[in-house]
Amino acid sequence: MTGLAADIDRTTTPVESGVIHPLWVRVSHGISIVAMLVMIGSGWQIYNASPLFSFTFPRGITLGGWLAGALLWHFAAMWLLVVNGLVYILLGVLTGHFGRKLLPIRPRDIVADLGAAVTFRLSHDDRSVYNAVQKLFYVGVILAMVVVVASGLAIWKPVQFRELTLLFGGYDAARYVHFFAMAAIVGFLVVHIVLALIFPKNLRAMITGR
Ligand code: HEM
Ligand code: HEM
Asked: How far does residue 195's CA lie from ligand 1's centre (Å)?
């Protein structure tokens, strides 16, 4: 490892500094919370203008006031989300963070950790190590983010990103993919936030690093 990546790793890896989450992970995680809130709130408002299903989202939990306002929010926070996401993925790969903390995910470990979790025997001793179920969910939500961005680009610029739109099976199918990827992320977030509140020590580590 050379240059910037090595510098970042040297100053922020848990092993050398006693920090549970490196600074760049905490900053990027914080930015993604803001970007996601805006994308989800404005997305729900966009949905309400032309619902795909027989329900709409209550006005109070949407953002933007009306379709055009929501689209402005959606297309503004989109840059924050994408730039932040690219930096996170780049640093995750270059510093070895992904290889160290999120991979590998072995089916046998998932079964074992799931069994330990439901019987309340899961170890929380070393907070810098994720269990297999956490790894699976974190990698899963990162992939769901890739899908929501790709399908978003496909419905934003279906002419310019023609191939991408076709890959999803056309504009209408891409819209459904975009919606279901959002639903998967929201589902993850509900569980993720409940667990963060149940284990406040882990939440503190994601804010202060320790
Ligand atoms: C680069 C990122 C993104 C782009 C370019 C994008 C683009 C778009 C566009 C163009 C629409 C309007 C679709 C239509 O006219 O029917 C839309 C709708 C929507 N977006 Fe996104 N989006 C992005 C990310 C996200 C994210 C991160 C979320 C939430 C997790 C999200 C949630 C929604 C929802 C719920 C809708 C309404 C679904 C519908 O009725 O079609 N989007 N998005
Ligand atoms: C209020 C909202 C949120 C809270 C309170 C929260 C809390 C946390 C906490 C406490 C951890 C560390 C878990 C541990 O040490 O056991 C974590 C990690 C993580 N969270 Fe969140 N989170 C929130 C929103 C989000 C959002 C919006 C996303 C992305 C969609 C996300 C994705 C992740 C990922 C990928 C990790 C693993 C990070 C890594 O080590 O690289 N979280 N979160």
From this structure: 27
pLDDT on residue 9: 58
- 150 CB near ligand 2 (under 6 Å): no
Region 181-209: mean pLDDT is 95
Atom of ligand 1 nearest to the CA of 175: 41
Q: Is 135 in the pocket of ligand 1 (CB under 6 A)?
A: no
pLDDT tens-digit map of 159-175: 999 999 999 999 999 99
Q: Cα separation of 159 and 142, whole Å?
A: 27
For the whole model, what pTM was predicted? 0.91
Determine the Cα–Cα distance for residues 28 and 206; give it in Å rounded to an integer: 11
Instruction: At 13, give phi and psi (nearest 5°).
Output: -70, 140
What per-residue confidence (pLDDT) applies to 122? 84
Residue 23 Cβ < 6 Å to ligand 2: no
- Select from 132, 128, 137 the least CA-distant residue to 13: 128
Are the C-beta atoms of residues 46 and 62 closer than 8 Å to each other?
no
Tell which residue, 133, 136, 181, 132, has the closest CA to residue 155. Answer: 181
- pLDDT for position 148: 98
Q: Does the Cβ of 97 fall within 6 Å of ligand 1?
A: no
Name the maximum alpha-carbon separation found in the chain.
Answer: 54
Going by the DSSP 8-state scheme, the letter that residue 98 receives in this structure is I
C-beta of 82 in contact with ligand 1 (< 6 A): yes
